[in-house]
Amino acid sequence: MSSNLHIQAIVQSIKAEEQSLRSQFPILAYQNMLGVSLLMCAVLAMLLVAGLYAVSYIPAWLCIVLIAFITSISHEIEHDLIHKLYFKRNPVVHNLMMLIVWLMRPNTINPWYRRKIHLHHHKVSGTNQDLEERLVGNGIKNPALRVVSIVDGLLGLIISHRAFKREITGFRFLSIFNAGFPIATVYFGILYGFIIFHSIDGFLYDTATHPTWLIDVMKWVDFLMVVLIAPNIIRSSSLNLVTSSMHYYGGVGNLMQQTQVLNHWVFFPFQLFCFNFGNTHTIHHFLPNQPFYIRQMISGRILPVMKHHGVRFNDIKSIKQANFYSASGLQSDKDM
Q1: Whose CA is closest to 315, among 328, 331, 329, 304?
Q2: Cβ–Cβ contacts within 10 Å for residue 222, how many?
Q3: What whole-number distance in Å separates Cα of residue 193 and Cα of residue 217?
Q4: Domain spans in the chain, listed from the N-terminal domain onward
């Protein structure tokens, strides 16, 4: 079979499984209400966990872990919104949902700008023009720079912007930088302010004296670090690691070669905080206009179909080769 026939067979299987699922569960027809309901549940859960931490009912580490998981759901909702799967004909509700998911994940560029680079990603995935994936470390050979890009998108952008300008058509540093204003700007201000204050305070031990207003401000900064900043560091780092590892960079000739399914046990801790992204995102590349919860529900039946038609699974060797899609054999799980 040619690559096109394999692709068609996979797409047809995905559509058939979705149709079967929708016939079993009529509630799936209410897509707009499901989307907004899932978002409201995520918001309420996030506020509840933050409230429990505020009254010292749960420890900081548990608050961070729970909110990191909750915000991973909001990322999937944003992804669906980018493809206009909810309230496409109601711009007020649609854009309000876009704003909410940005507020829940303030270390990202705004979702309206991300829509532009994400739709472009689908057209140029696997090439040096794929800005969205390159921003999070895809194709980077230097392991130190890759870690920086995965953990701190702003610092990674600053370090790599010269290479992006040379290689990516139409790249403008200020366009990306300004796409974070004002929410991401405030986020990084709080993060770096926290690091600087506590670094200086720790170095000076008990000799430092701070004005009362600064102490009051830092109490809020410390609180926001637990309920918003740290959870999103975990969420975004997990997502960036998984997505930059499962997308190929170079050697890509068709849709079959754009992504691999990454569900090796080594990635399980990170999958928890990116809503099983490595296991299901390849389905999205074959059928973009499908809600995230349907991908999750049909993945158990679709993954064997994709493997049968030649989609790669756990090609760890490619990660070591800066995500290059090689025609040579794969590295098996036993080699891990």
Answers
A1: 331
A2: 15
A3: 11
A4: 3-335
pLDDT reading at 332 higher than 80? no
Residue 271 CB burial class (10 angstroms; 0-12, 13-18, ≥19): buried
3-state helix, strand, coil in the chain (%, to 5): 70, 0, 25
The two three-digit tokens of residue 332, written as one number? 């098996």
What's the rounded Cα separation, in Å, for the pair 317 and 311? 15
In the block, residue with structure tokens 């978002």: 39
Residues 169-173, mean pLDDT to the nearest whole number: 96
Query: Is residue 182 reached through a cis peptide bond, with omega within 30 degrees of 0 on the bond before it?
Result: yes
| pTM of the predicted protein model | 0.94
Average pLDDT over residues 28-40: 98
C-alpha torsion sign, points 267, 272, 273, 277: positive
What residues are paired with 261 via a beta bridge?
Answer: 313
Instruction: Establish how many alpha carbons lie within 13 A of residue 31's alpha carbon, considering only the half-sphere containing its beta carbon.
Output: 18
- Rounded Cα distance between 296 and 267, Å, is 17
